[in-house]
Amino acid sequence: MTREMTGAEMVIQALKDQGVDTIFGYPGGAVLPIYDEIIQQEGLEHILVRHEQGAGHAAEGYARSTGKPGVALVTSGPGATNMVTALTDAMLDSIPLVCISGQVPTHLIGNDAFQECDTVGITRPCTKHNWLVRNVDDLPRVLHEAFYVATSGRPGPVVVDIPKDVQFATGTYQGPTPNPAAAHKSYRPQLKGDAASIRQAAEMMAAAKKPVLYTGGGVINSGTQACQLLRELVSLTGFPITSTLMGLGAYPASGDNWLGMLGMHGTFEANMAMHDCDLMVCIGARFDDRITGRTDAFSPNSRKIHIDIDPSSINKTINVDLPIIGDVGHVLEDLVRIWRSSSMKADEKAMKAWWQQVDAWRARNSLAYKPNNDVIMPQYAIQRLYELTKHRKTFISTEVGQHQMWAAQFYGFEEPNHWLTSGGLGTMGYGLPAAIGAQVAHRDALCVDIAGDASILMNIQEMSTAVQFGLPVKVFILNNQYMGMVRQWQQLLHGNRLSHSYTDSLPDFVKLAEAYGGVGIRVEKPGDLDGAIEEMVSVDKPVLFDCRVANLANCFPMIPSGKAHNEMLLPDEANDEAVANAISAEGKSLV
Amino acid sequence: MNAQNVDAPSAYFLAEVSNEIETHTLSLLVDNEPGVLARVIGLFSGRGYNIDSLTVSETEHERHLSRITIVTTGTPMIIEQIRHQLDRLVPVHRVTDLTVRAKRANQDKPLERELALIKVAGDGDKRLEALRLGDAFRATVIDATTEHFVFEITGRTSKIEQFIAIMKPLGLVEVSRTGVAAVQRGPEGL
Questions:
Q1: Among A76, A176, A539, A583, which one is least packed by beta carbons within 10 Å?
Q2: Average pLDDT over residues A472-501
Q3: pTM (2 d.p.)
Q4: Phi and psi (nearest 5°) for A65?
């Protein structure tokens, strides 16, 4: 389809042609022509946020919960700089995000004009790619290319910066090309894995005595088909499976082979299996420092297979024996096919012994905590939230900190795309806008932001967005009055000198909810928790749920900084002395 | 990789990991569009990689392609990372490690040349000596007064370094260098 139209019209048309139904944005001088088109059309819903960072995270929540790209629209200058955190977040977690930003007119670029900033310069290191469109004739091509780049290969955020005069200018619109990968002159990521390598992987798996599958967000990014194939692979091989924070839900938490999450706050059995295995199959994960602990002591006796779509993930921190470059879905399809067609079997005797070992680790019950009848334990609060919401269609987002780790440990995810959390960047303030993004995409679902009392205040203004658009998101605040994870690290690393990690003047969250036009619920006793959660779920409005929990609870188990997987600090061993000496002088300099 | 894995039975298993610092010459074919050099340089500074030398110029005008030659140092693992990170940039068409290519072809190094303009000022014996050495290094005099010469010299980096060192006591004023341009030996292109 080709047709004469203005740049602003092209933006709307291109979004519609790309199948976009929702955008998250905030108007301003340099995007007024686009906003003027938004109000004159139907089919593209605009969600007005209260801060551009919120637009970015909401678009991420939309993307994560649907598997489609999220779209944000912001103005020049501060609009664009406010997006930087969300772009970086999407970059580190490989979330497809298309951000359209206004820019001052081309003749003013470089003049320090009002609300001018070098948007492409500022966002270059935090996007997969970005474009400044100086000519309206380039705009349709760039917009379609932006969607292709954001969603193909390893997904990520892109920015299209459009000067105001280009939005007013008239040019010829062209629709998307049917096969953008073939049409693109330089960016064509490899999807199919090398067949010989995949066969080699299957043979290594069949020969393994102590295998473990280590999966990550790449499985979820690859799509629901990839998650199905992963489940099939697990049932065919009988291998134990663990996952990173980003990969929760790809394999169901109720599955027999599930070891729980691995890494710094992962389970004992997951980390011990990683340490003691003889074959590690890494599928769509990237050996992040929160996963590996001390790299020179990381899984010393294993051979390692690494399936990843991004060649730069291979051998970045951990050297692997067999790299397979390709999309997880494609590679797993081939792997499962080869396994079946060659009637391959795992070493049954060895697997039996391996599972006995794993079960012995499981019996250590590393997530245990001391129950309390007077004070709500944060772990208990998550457990009750899970029990009372697991039969519904529920999306869980989080902020960042202890509550995030407890959510990952105690909320069971059965399906992919239902867990929205900021893993790589660790962005406090992510959860509420992400929950809003998920709620927009799934109006009938229960969308809960598991939050901390500190994190929630970082983007609390989005309550106003939720109320305006009738989005009944629930903010489940584990309120311990501390920045809990900061306090925990100060206890571990800095002689329990709690420098500025106590929030002295927290708002009254119940009144705050009411001020925004939502509902506030406070609960202080374990006995009242279930009733309060049920009330929260049944309210058809945004809720701030102020759950007062034990103030000084620590998040265990934990691999202290600078330690290996088999040197975990377990909850029942974590007395004051062990906590005080958990981290060596060398480990103290690590993050 | 772990020591016991080195003999693992596969063509895909890596060679033993070395932690020695090596110097490699990378050749990139990129779209000649605004910001492409900033992307490349930003990647190096952002990830803490070294740039010893960098040259860039459009080499295919009709396709708007530029060729960037980068000389970098690092362990083999880092250099492999650099190559993949560069390859990930959207406007990058191809990344070739010319040093690896040369080694595979049993050559010492790829063909590498640099051009330098070197200004030397002085009189008497020093001036004569500079001119004589310039001749010995096949440097051309491209500008002169009774007080100075400007030499144009082409060659491998080591030759240029040597020439500059020799000129230092003879009245070296300033140096401008292009950085390394490189191609692979033999009939094949990138």
A1: A539
A2: 95
A3: 0.95
A4: -85, -15
Whether pLDDT at B78 is above 90 = yes
CATH tag for A195-362 (out of 1.20.120.520, 3.40.50.300, 3.40.630.30, 3.40.50.1220): 3.40.50.1220
DSSP structure string for A227-277:
HHHHHHHHHHH---EEE-GGGTTSS-TTSTTEEEE-STT--HHHHHHHHH-
In this structure, which amino acid lies at residue B15? Answer: A
CB B81 within 8 A of CB B24: no
- CATH code of the domain made up of A2-183: 3.40.50.970
At residue A574, the pLDDT reads: 82
B56 shares its domain with B123: no
Of A120, A185, A321, the CB nearest to B35: A120
- Chain B residue with the nearest C-alpha to that of A153: B88
**Number of domains comprising chain B:** 2
Instruction: Choose the closest CB to B8 out of A124, A321, A323.
Output: A321
Boundaries of every domain in chain A: 2-183, 195-362, 378-548
ipTM (interface predicted TM): 0.91
| pLDDT score for B133 | 97
- B56's enclosing H/E stretch is strand B53-60
Active site residues of A: 52, 114-115, 164, 485
Expressed as residue numbers, the domain containing B123 is 111-183
Q: What percent of chain B is helix, strand and coil (3-state, nearest 5)?
A: 30, 35, 35
Does the pLDDT of residue A586 top 90, yes or no? no
| Percentage of chain A lying above the pLDDT 90 cut | 94
Q: Residue B90 and residue A300: Cβ atoms within 8 Å?
A: no
Q: A161-200 pLDDT, tens per residue? A: 999 999 999 999 999 999 999 889 999 999 999 999 999 9
Determine contact: B31 vs chain A, CB below 8 A.
yes
pLDDT of residue B2: 36
**Closest alpha carbon within chain B to A158:** B90
Q: A544 has which bridge partners?
A: A475, A520
Q: Confirm or reject contact between A312 and chain B (CB < 8 A).
A: yes
Contacts of A315 by beta carbon, 8 Å cutoff, 6+ apart: A323, B14, B77, B80, B81
B12 touches chain A (CB under 8 A): yes
Residues B172, B93 within the same domain: no
Looking at residue B6, what is its pLDDT? 34
**Helices and strands counted in chain A (H then E):** 23, 20
Domain termination residue (choose one: B39, B69, B104): B104
Q: Does B19 touch chain A (CB under 8 A)?
A: no
pLDDT band for position B92 (50/70/90)?
very high
- Rounded Cα distance between A468 and A517, Å, is 9
The SS3 call for residue A202 is helix
**Residue B124, burial from CB neighbour count under 10 angstroms (0-12, 13-18, 19+):** exposed
Cα separation, A316 vs B183, in Å, equals: 28
Based on the fold, state whether residues B90 and B127 are members of the same structural domain. Answer: no
Identify the burial level of B143 via C-beta atoms within 10 angstroms of its C-beta, where 0-12 means exposed, 13-18 middle and 19 or more buried. Answer: exposed
Confidence of residue B11 (pLDDT cuts 50, 70, 90): very low
Q: Which CATH superfamily is domain A378-548 in?
A: Thiamin diphosphate (ThDP)-binding fold, Pyr/PP domains (3.40.50.970)
Say if CB A212 and CB A239 are below 8 A apart: yes
Tokens read off for A73: 């629209």
